[in-house]
Amino acid sequence: MKLGITKAQHHTVVLWVLGACNAASFFAALQLVSNLAPEDRISIKRGTALTALGFVYFMSLFELLNVTALFTRFGSRFRRKYQLSSGDVLDITNKLVSAVQAAFCCATGAVVCAWSCTRDLVRSSHFISEAYAWFGAAYFFYDIWSMYMVHVYMTTTNLGYRSKMIKPPKKESLPSGDAINDVTCDSTSDTVEPAPCSGKQVSFFAYCKHEPVILMHHLFIGGFGFLVIVYLRGGLGDCVFGFVYLMEVSTPFVSARGILSRMRLKSSRLYVVNGLLMLATFLVCRVLSLPYVCLLYSRAIRLPYLEAISSLPLGCKVSICILLLPQLYWFYLMSSGALKMLFRRTRPKQS
Question: Higher-confidence residue: 205 or 310?
């Protein structure tokens, strides 16, 4: 008698293993900091463990969502409904993980601001600020790998169901969950125009040239930003970093915008409402928050606004500029895109 395991059973086991790893890493991280007093510091040993658990958490969550979307009946129905390729799926799961990380940041920022900003803006601190710096640093380096994987799938194996559709797809045109990884370029397809496929693996350096701004942003936040919060600040300015954590309030709306775009729902009312919320939260939490923190600092040291900023150490002023300039650039791109969409909607009504 020959015993075997079906692909469906294999994928079910993988889902359970990934889910267990994800939940265990999260609760282990909570257990590491559960006995700390508010003003305790995070030791290197404890912080290293938090970073390792962060890698396990974010990578297992990404893979858990991918397996669910690519190899389950629910995922198959979802892909057929919105005609998603494997590249689209990976991009959606990447954005979902980003939204989860943003929720953690917002919770951290809320705790830090409630504790530190109401006591001493400069000298008061809460352990959760350092704890999540250790845990969350893993996300920024994981996300570089994750975005690279999305880029590879979108440029080499994505059949382009979103933008290259020339006929409604047949029932057989979308690969099933078990065959999604077997997608190849087909120049004879009668349902979609084939996407470019050179057969060569996209190099990581080519990806770095393709997305330099977001890559530098991740390296700055995950590397230098981590060092500032954990070491270089010397226990000062915890309230400021609480506002930096709260900059992630806009990220779920940015992620939802990308997900709705992949699902070809740009013409829906939900897309418009989400876009307005994204612009509002991005403006308040990412563009205006740092100038507001400088205002709080000027009041704390009782100096005029510009004099207070000029009194900051050179490293602080450079860091603020490095953190703020990409936000201005991205807000400009979002605003210009929103204006273009608004004019497209008004022109048909006028005609």
Answer: 310
**pTM for the predicted model, two decimal places:** 0.80
pLDDT score for 324 = 87
Where are the chain's structural domains?
8-164+190-344
Taking the C-alpha atoms of residue 38 and residue 27, their distance in angstroms, rounded to an integer, is 19
> For the segment 144-184, what is each residue's pLDDT rounded down to a tens digit?
999 998 888 888 755 444 444 334 444 343 333 333 333 33
Which pLDDT value is given to residue 60?
A: 96
* Per-residue model confidence (pLDDT) at position 181: 37
Whether the Cβ atoms of residue 235 and residue 123 lie closer than 8 Å to each other? yes
Contacts of 275 (CB under 8 A, 6+ apart): 253, 257, 338, 341
Q: Which one, of 78, 59, 82, lies nearest residue 68 by Cα?
A: 78
104: amino acid identity, one letter: F
Distance CA 57, CA 23 (A): 8
Distance CA(331)–CA(336), nearest Å, equals 8
Rounded to 5°, angle at Cα 264 from 286 and 280 = 20
- H-helix or E-strand containing 37? none
The residue type found at 202 is V
CA 103 to CA 109: how far, in whole Å? 10
What contacts 24+ positions apart, CB below 8 Å, involve 149-155?
149/90, 150/87, 150/90, 150/91, 150/94, 151/202, 151/207, 151/210, 151/211, 152/201, 152/202, 152/207, 153/85, 153/86, 153/87, 153/90, 154/87, 154/88, 154/90, 154/91, 155/87, 155/195, 155/196, 155/202
Between the two ends of the chain, the Cα-to-Cα distance in Å is: 73
